[in-house]
Design a protein that fits this description.
eight-stranded antiparallel sheet, 0% helix, mainly beta, 2 domains, four-stranded antiparallel sheet, 15 strands, elongated, 244 residues
Length: 244
């Protein structure tokens, strides 16, 4: 197969480049068609690539409303902190947790937020918590609201989003956390989370948490941790959601 390499192809006349005669099919291998900027017939940019796969100037009509921002992988980490990428670009942000596992058995997965310009992850939170669970034997099942330390009551502690995660090789927690309009300086910061985890005593647990950070300051950072010990493994991904 011959390879045509050129920096620029221009038509002899008008503004259209014609490849092949009428009725003929022109096949171009995907590996041979390379360009940094793709535009439509009206000259509107569809997207631009930096040559390494990172896109910019992506037309709003393209793709999903969910935009990937960043990802972190825990490896015996005391905390996983997201201190950039949370700003006024989007009104809604979502974190996805994939196979998060504690170093120490029977630990709770937690989060807190930090107001812009603040000195620590200690914003005041009011929240609620409920769980559906079943053990492997099927002898213990329930759906219940849980009190104690799980829901916070105008407290500055960390918010639990998954409880009693086992540290066996096959045990971990997965789920998501939504934070709404974190850059608002008018409203409190609402959030909701859902997690599914393997309990240290071989239960399956589906857990639901929701509440608000009681601050009208903009929030620009989120920290994840375990109730004791480090986060042994797991990936956390951050996405922004476009307005419809």
């Amino acid at each position: 197969m011959s390879i045509l390499e050129a920096k620029k192809i221009e038509p002899a006349t008008a503004t259209t480049v014609t490849l092949g005669a009428a009725g003929e099919t022109v096949a171009i291998a995907a590996s041979q068609l390379k360009t940094n900027t793709i535009k439509d017939a009206g000259g509107n940019t569809i997207f631009t690539s930096d040559g390494s796969g990172t896109l910019s100037s992506v037309n709003s009509a393209l793709g999903s409303t969910m935009v990937f921002i960043s990802s972190q992988t825990a490896s015996n980490s005391a905390t996983v902190d997201f201190t950039s990428g949370i700003d006024s670009t989007y009104n809604e942000y979502v974190f996805y947790f994939i196979n998060v596992q504690p170093v120490t058995d029977a630990q709770n997965f937690m989060f807190q937020v930090n107001a812009a310009g603040g000195s620590g992850f200690n914003e005041t939170i009011t929240s609620t918590w409920f769980v559906a669970y079943q053990n492997e034997a099927g002898s213990a099942t329930s759906v219940e609201f849980q009190s104690g330390s799980m829901p916070l009551r105008q407290a500055t502690g960390v918010q639990q989003i998954a409880s009693d995660i086992g540290n066996d090789n096959d045990q971990n927690s997965c789920g998501y956390l939504y934070i709404f309009n974190p850059s608002s300086t008018t409203y409190v910061k609402h959030y909701l989370a859902k997690t599914q985890n393997a309990h240290s005593s071989n239960y399956t647990q589906n857990q639901f948490t929701g509440g608000y950070g009681n601050t009208t300051s903009a929030v620009d950072a989120v920290q994840f941790s375990m109730s004791a010990g480090n986060i042994d493994a797991g990936k956390i991904k951050l996405y922004g959601l476009k307005d419809s």
